[in-house]
Every structure is written in structure tokens, then in C-alpha cells.
Known about the structure:
This protein has helices at 39-53, 61-70, 78-99, 103-106, 129-139, 162-174, 188-198, 215-222, 238-246, 263-275, 288-299, 314-319, 355-362, and strands at residues 4-12, 16-23, 28-32, 114-120, 143-147, 177-181, 205-207, 229-231, 252-253, 279-280, 307-308, 340-342, 373-374, 380-381. It has 383 residues and is of the alpha/beta class. Helix 2 runs antiparallel to helix 3. The protein is globular and about 65 Å long.
Amino acid sequence: MGKIKTIEYFRVLPRWLFVKITDEHDNYGWGEATLEGHSQAVEGCLDAMIQRFVGYEADNIEYLWQTAHRHSFYRGGPVLMSALAGIDIALWDLLSRRLGLPLHVLLGGAVRNKIKVYSWIGGDRPRDVEAAAKERFAQGFRAIKMNATEDVDWLDSPKALETSVERCKIVKAVGLDVGLDFHGRLHKPMAKRLAKALEPHNPLFIEEPLLSEHYEGIKQLSRLTTIPIALGERLYSRWDVKRFLHDTSIDILQPDISHCGGISEIRRIASMAEAYDVALAPHCPLGPIALAACMQVAMCTPNFAIQEMGLTIHYNTEAGAYDIKNYIKDQSVWDVKEGYVEGLKGVGLGIEVDEEEVRKVARTANAWAPKGFVGPDGSIREW
């Protein structure tokens, strides 16, 4: 046992926010509180949590989680839950490091020895997908995800969807399964059309076919297609997830471990999903700490299906040289073979963070700004 001595956070390129917690005996753990485009808001929340939680027992992870969530009065949402996620992940890493065990052992032990993964191609406005798909196949991936469309109007020409089908066919011809991320860009009239057009080509899943707040539309869409429906990155707790499970409107749940309160909450969400025969496929186009935390959860979660990896995702390459192989000492942990990454075997999260690199980059890193689309008439479109 040891009391929390310090909680630090580090804004690093390309768009990540890392958290380090040290106890009074100098045991430490790392977490990730990334909320893309809203780092300053999460940092402000972390400042308040630092004042509150320094001096708490580091081993009492659930007590701290409950205090942060239930004694805040205004609960949930992306900012609070991302800040809490960074602290929660770091505390789990600290505890398992102190005990000299891989984190998944503390969560019940392994149910698998390797993790099925997919990565991204195509960018925000998907293009050059054949070359990118061949590159991913050569890297060892057997599944990828790409944006299904560019920006689409509320009611657009059916021609706006034709290239989506062609890209799906091209990637599948390379030998890859493909998930298509609607990204909440489409509204119901166009989402229904695109799901029907894609169905003969058997995508792995369609993601966020509508924004998560349109739960009644997602329920309707789920009755119109046999393609598995995935969503969850914009759901921040088990209470946000509850309605979709009750409606039986989704097949794959994609909570983001850095947005939904960390390891403690994603485990509860996974168990809820299992009771409804829904698979877990955590969202994670983020940094190596978040990915390692997802891998630890995947190791011990029966209904885990596949893990997103942000390896050379366009958000990273647009920002320069920083990717998930930065900030860690052993880059080989992310090697992909025949669609899988080996289960992480080291203590804690299973990675060793390069603290010197983290502190160096954090000295000058700017916050990543949110993106957006504007239509030809000047109106705001979903990104």
C-alpha cells in the first residue's frame, strides 16, 4: 500500500495526453487521457483531480473511481470520463507493476494468447485504398478500417455513395476484411441507402452508421441490414451503453478506454455486452498507452473480437514523425503476424514508457485542433 504522491500529465504529439502517477514509495504507473481535439479541457479536469486525489491510497482504485464519478454531481461525458480514464489506467499499471504481474492477471487471467487487430487506410477523404491495402497486408494485417464516405449532405445524390462500394470491393480483392466507418457523417436517408448498397459485398462491420444520439434511428437501421453494426466511441459509461443493448440494435460495442473511464469501466461494459451476445472491439486510434491497456483487457475478456490499432493512421502521419511506436522502449510489441499481435507479457501494461522522450516532446507540443467539413453551400456538415 502507498499513498499517491504525484499525478502528472503530458501533452505529446501527435494528439495524445499521457498521465503518470507515483506513490510515496516511488512506484509508478502510466495512463492515457487522450480526448482528440479537447486536450485543454481534459487537462483542466486533471488539474482539479490532482488537487483532490493526491494523498489517496493508490491501491484503492475502485474507491477513487467511485469518488471521482459519484461525488462530482455532474457525471459522465467525454471530458470527465477521459480525465478519470487516464488516472484509472495509471493506477492499474502502478498496482500490477508493484506486484510484478501483467495487468490482465489481476483481472482474472488470460483467455487467449494473441490479439486479433486491424488498422486504418484511406484518410478523412478516403483515397488510394488499393496501394494502402496492399501495404497493410504486407505488414501482417488481415483486416482494415476506412472511412466509408467523404462528407455527405443530409439528403445527397445517390451518386455520392457509389465510390464507397467500389472502395470496399477493391480492398476485399486484396485479401483483407474491411470495416467501414460511417463516422456519424451520414444522416438516416443516406445511411439506409449505403448500408443496402454495401450488403452484397460483406463488409466486416459498419461503424457509427448514425450518430449515437440517434438511438431510435440506429434501432431502425439494425432491422434493415444484416451487416453487423458497431459503435461506442462516443459512449462514455455503462449507462450510455445500456439503451443500445436493451434495444438489441448493435452487434459490436466499441468503447474507447481513454474516453469511458478507463480499465475499470470498460470491464463492466464488456460484461454487460456479453450478457446481450454483443462483441467487444475497443476503439483506439490513440497512443501506445491506451493501446496497451486495451490489449490487457482483450487478454481476459471472453467476448473480445478485434482491436483497432492506430499504426501510421492519417492523424499521426499528418502531424509528423510520431506514432504508436514512439514513447515506448520496445517497439516490437506492436509487430503484427497474420492479423494478430502477441499478448503483452511484461509487468503492468506490458510496455515500458520512454519517459525522457515523453518529457522532451511535452515541453513544446501544441494541442490538436478538431476538424470539420463544410458543404459547397457553406453549411456545416458532420465530420
